[in-house]
Amino acid sequence: MDILIQLFEQSGVANLSIGNLVMFVVAGILIYLAVTKNYEPLLLIPIGFGAILANLPLADMGSYGDGIMAVIYDAGIRTELLPPLIFLGVGVLTDFRPLLARPLTFLLGAAAQLGIVAAALGAFYLLGFTAREAAAIGIIGGADGPTSIFLTIQLAPHLLGAVAVAAYSYMSLVPIIQPPILRLLTTKKERGIDMPQALPVSKTAVILFPLLTGLIASLAVPSSAPLIGMLMFGNLIRESGVTERLRKTAGGAMIDIVTILLGIVVGATMGAENFLTYQTVLILILGAVAFAFSTAGGIILAKIINLFLGEGKKINPCIGAAGVSAVPMSARVVQQFVSQETGGRVNPIMPAMGPNVAGVIGSAVAAGVFLSMLL
Amino acid sequence: MNPPDLLVICASALIAVFFLLTLLAVVMRLLMAVYPAKVEGIEPATLAAVAAAAAFAFPGTRVTNVEEIR
User: Fold this and answer.
1) Backbone phi and psi for residue A304, each to the nearest 5 degrees, phi listed first
2) Could you give the ipTM of this predicted complex?
3) A119-126 mean pLDDT
4) Using a CB-CB distance cutoff of 8 angstroms, which residues of chain A are in contact with residue B7?
5) Which of A71, A286, A297, B39 could form a Cys-Cys staple with A111, CB 3.0–4.6 A?
6) pLDDT by residue (tens digit) across A178-209?
7) Rounded to an integer, what distance in angstroms lies between the CA atom of residue A290 and that of residue A298?
8) Range(s) of the domain holding residue A216
9) Does B41 touch chain A if contact means CB atoms closer than 8 Å?
10) In angstroms, what separates the C-alpha of A115 from chain B's closest C-alpha?
11) pLDDT recorded at residue A251
12) A106 contacts B25? CB cut-off 8 A
């Protein structure tokens, strides 16, 4: 009997805390959103399951322990290896032609980083976070998971779980967050603007784009080179047309493997003792603020630009909302919103992809500046 | 040396993002001016299909020009 009691006492059941049970519910919500709503399933499922593993008492499956998750965390996250590898895959999967065809949309991708600044300043001046923590929280407004992880692990590693969950959760909630802001900030007439024809893009320009962008951005902000360098390397693999095997691997098996490892190990940082804190609640609120400001920033700049453009050359300000770099979710949301509002007459999916991919570069540059000035 | 104020850091980040993306926009616009896309002609199969469809809908019609608008 003593042996049975001893066995029970050493089981996870006997050591479960209320915090662990709450985290099981949180993980369940993430997995539910992924499975039933199809919200970022490739990330929310690994993150959700990682959170379950991290909250199994005595199993040592958290990222901060000594188990296998900690091995992956130390090798892939602490070394900052996995986020740039994700960027390599993203570069392979991203077509930058819509951006090149409308160079003006580069600016919308820049304006949509406004939320980074708004959330960082709010966290620092209103809520008492340190400057490093505030910068890590602010980057949620960039709507870019790998960039958020890359920056947070260097500036505020103890916030990694909350920041990553906020970033990916809000990315998945773009279809809910953005339409009310689009409706609030644009008129019916503006939503109905059908944009002029895009410039045709030559093969040479498409190949030179990753080379020049990688060089210019990395020379200007060297600390953004791991992200932008890998993004542009991936894009060169895609566009060169002579590295089919590399393109298939980087855009297929490699990014899938890295996504699995990154997702589960980020989820495994969500132990109850780290995640169930007052700070996490504040980070989730600030994340929503960041997304809202980023969306508004892109729309407002598009409206300002329109003041200087002649009739027939105006841009649909709704595409500014796609400057948050949740690719391609944000561009799809803009397309769906405008199409519904205009009865299918205007379909700006391709124009919206321009600021969408520019936002990826913009958030990586912002992260680079934070790193240079705060590390 | 004390680290700069977060307000300064945030302003620097926003300025850097705007400056860099504006620079990239200008460079890309120049790039496309230097290397313009070649406008390819309409495929013969497409021409034949358009001509056949027009002749079916409006007998006696002759298609003299087909232009692709992207």
Assistant:
1) -65, -45
2) 0.90
3) 95
4) 121
5) A297
6) 999 999 999 999 999 998 878 788 999 999 99
7) 13
8) 86-263+272-374
9) no
10) 10
11) 95
12) yes
What is the rounded CA–CA span in Å between residue A177 and residue B22?
28
Give the phi and the psi of residue A266 in degrees, each rounded to 5.
-70, -40
Overall number of domains in chain A: 1
Rg (CA), chain A: 21
Alpha-carbon distance of A94 to A254, in angstroms, equals: 15
Whether residues B26 and A103 touch (CB distance < 8 A) is answered with: yes
Query: Token pair for residue A62?
Result: 């958290």
- Which of B2, B7, B19, B20 to substitute to test the interface with A, most A CBs within 10 Å? B20
- Is A220–B16 a contact, with Cβ atoms under 8 angstroms apart? yes
CA-based radius of gyration for chain B: 26
Q: Average pLDDT in the B4-17 region?
A: 92
DSSP state of A59: S
Q: CA-to-CA distance for A265 and A192, rounded, in angstroms?
A: 44
pLDDT digits (tens, 9 = 90+) for A266-310: 999 999 998 999 999 999 999 999 999 999 999 999 999 999 998
Minimal CA separation from B51 to chain A, in Å:
26
- Show the tokens assigned to A135: 């910068």
Secondary structure of A14-47 in HEC code, one letter for each residue = HHCCHHHHHHHHHHHHHHHHHHHHCCCHHHHHHH
Q: How far is CA A118 from the centre of its chain?
A: 17
Evaluate whether A196 touches A337 at the Cβ level (below 8 Å). no
Task: Spell out which residues of chain B touch residue A111, defining contact as CB-CB under 8 Å.
Answer: 18
Kindly determine whether residue B11 and residue A220, on different chains, have CB atoms separated by under 8 Å.
Answer: no
Whole-structure pTM value: 0.88
C-beta separation of A366 from B14 below 8 A? yes
3-state secondary structure of A300: helix
**pLDDT of amino acid B2:** 62
Q: Are A230 and A94 in contact (CB under 8 A)?
A: no
Q: Which helix (H) or strand (E) holds B44?
A: helix B44-57
The answer as to whether A23 is a domain residue is: no
Q: Helix H segments across A66-139?
A: 68-72, 82-93, 97-101, 105-111, 114-121, 131-138
Q: Are A351 and A109 in contact (CB under 8 A)?
A: no
